[in-house]
Amino acid sequence: MIANVRGTVLAIAAASAVIEVSGVGMQIFATPATLASLRIGAEASVATTLIVREDSLTLYGFADADERDVFEIITGVSGIGPRTALAVLATLSPDELRDAVATKNESVLTRVSGIGKKGAQRMILELGTKLGPAQRSVPAGHSTPVAATNADVLDALVNLGWAEREAAPAIEEAMVVEPGASVAQLLRLSLRILGSRR
């Protein structure tokens, strides 16, 4: 298995990036949050997993090893393939997914594109305690300064192709919905808001 890729970012698209490793450009599919953290021409290190099919070898990339591990567990749920698993992580952080499964919150899971009520019930049943304990790295009461968070999220959305005039109001709306959200949480919520307006 290819567990990690480190190299220079050659290109970034809506759903994937190309990272050059020892002269070879590897296309890596990832969530918008992971792609937004990359910069063309800069070196990047991405946790990865390789999905092997009869007709393809597809590399998926993640912000960290925890996100990769959660992706691999999700793809073990019947009826959920890699693309849907990636959509889950584009909508929910690993800890948000853990919370939703632990509390049997179907409505949170059905926010994911491609997951209906039955799919949410199946995820809750099959995932059970497989996801392990929460990996929250920011202690309660310790958040990133609001101005820095806003700037990081705005920069990420612009890099993903959104106009600043569209992105800024979505960030403001997201901050009302989730006060004190981390950069990753705010980016996910802003993307959901922008997507709903199209």
Largest sheet: 5 strands, mixed, barrel
CATH architecture of the largest domain: Orthogonal Bundle
N-to-C span: 38 Å
What is the rounded Rg? 17 Å
Shape: globular
Work out the strand percent: 15-25%
Task: Give, in spatial order, the strands making up the sheet with the most strands.
Answer: 1-2-3-5-4
Q: Note poorly predicted spans.
A: 138-144
Class inferred from helices and paired strands = alpha+beta
Helical content stands at: 40-55%
Helix and strand string, N-terminal first?
Answer: EEEHEEHHHHHHHH
| Mean of residue pLDDT values | 86
Q: What is the CATH class name of the largest domain?
A: Mainly Alpha
Query: Total number of β-strand segments?
Result: 5
How many helices in DSSP terms?
9
Number of domains as seen in the coordinates? 3
State the CATH topology of the largest domain. DNA polymerase, domain 1
What's the CATH superfamily of the largest domain, by name? 5' to 3' exonuclease, C-terminal subdomain
Please describe what this structure looks like:
46% of the residues lie in helices and 20% in strands. The protein is an alpha+beta fold. It folds into three domains: 4-62, OB fold (Dihydrolipoamide Acetyltransferase, E2P) (Beta Barrel), CATH 2.40.50.140; 65-127, 5' to 3' exonuclease, C-terminal subdomain (DNA polymerase, domain 1); 146-193, Helicase, Ruva Protein, domain 3 (Orthogonal Bundle), CATH 1.10.8. A five-stranded mixed β-barrel has the order 1-2-3-5-4. Strand 4 and strand 5 form a beta hairpin. Mean pLDDT is 86; it is low at 138-144.
